[in-house]
Amino acid sequence: MSKRDWRLYVYDILDAIAKVERYISGLTHEAFSKAEVVVDPVARNPEIIGEAAKYIPENVREAHSEIDWKRVTGFRNIVIHFGSSGSRMG
How many domains does the chain have? Predict the structure, then answer.
């Protein structure tokens, strides 16, 4: 387990969410899908979120059961495998 305080991982998650919101602000789906310079960092941030979520202690996860923690970490796995396959959504 990480020696880093779990609260710092919460900050990592919030920071990644804020970045995605900034990156896509004002973009239509069409404009977003054509902007490779935006697509790549937006795709990277769910990896950061999912990785950080793995370090949130079980008692904190239980206290915040409104968050589907399994889905958060599962989505990270999907993004990593999708990105490593070289595939792109079109």
Answer: 1
